[in-house]
Amino acid sequence: MDEANYDSDKKPMELWELEKFLDKAIEDKNRIINLSHRCLTIITGRLKSATLAQILLLNHNKLLMPPIELCSLPNLTELILDNNMLTMLPTGIGNLSKLRVLSASHNPLSALPDDLANLSSLQSLWLVNCQIITLPPSLGKLKQLRKLGLRKNQVSAIPKELCDLQHLQWLNLEDNLLKEMPSDISGWKKLVYINLNSNCFEEVPIVFQDVTTLVSLLLRGNSIKILPDDTIVALSFLTYLDIRENDISSRPAHWKGLNFILIGVEEDASFNKQP
User: How far apart are CA 220 and CA 239, in angstroms?
Assistant: First the structure.
């Protein structure tokens, strides 16, 4: 794939420079349009003509208003909007029927549009540090979603509809305000990894016994005081259970052979942490 290049070390891109840049990208039929690190505050209508673009990088700019022009790019498969000043996602983003990757981390979004549910091909959604308080139930309609990153938000409840994501494999909800899981999470038929570190759980949710594909369950830095033997037995299919930095400081004598459970401040060099 060709990529239009621009020296990001130069002064902020002027509008005329942006239009010239887009004209060349369109003329060259570029599949990747890299407009990251340009100090852009707006996007011009010229972007609409880049209909062959598959990857659009707009990260690390100063965008205040959602660039609705990008919603006219029918072949877009990857959209990166990280590190801007967006308070909402573009109206019409659901029109991007081929989009597989959407990342809008580090924007003060606070809320998500129901329009996201129309992204029928979406496989990865990254919304880290977006001040999100509530997750819309409509996210449960993203049937192809594999990875969902919601670290460092203010989410206090998981809508039951989110448990309809049967292809979900990786879920990061670290550093939120969660106290409990939905009562039925059996719809997560392919979930392998879930990160619930730095939330408000007082116990290891036994409801995870219904997700037998789960390999890694992270609950570090919560308020867990006890891990009953019944819960250990119910979650015996796990290969990694991290409950460090909770109120369990010592390993019971009868936990012999349960080295997959990490407690206290034990360090583990063998586990490769996911981002």
Answer: 16
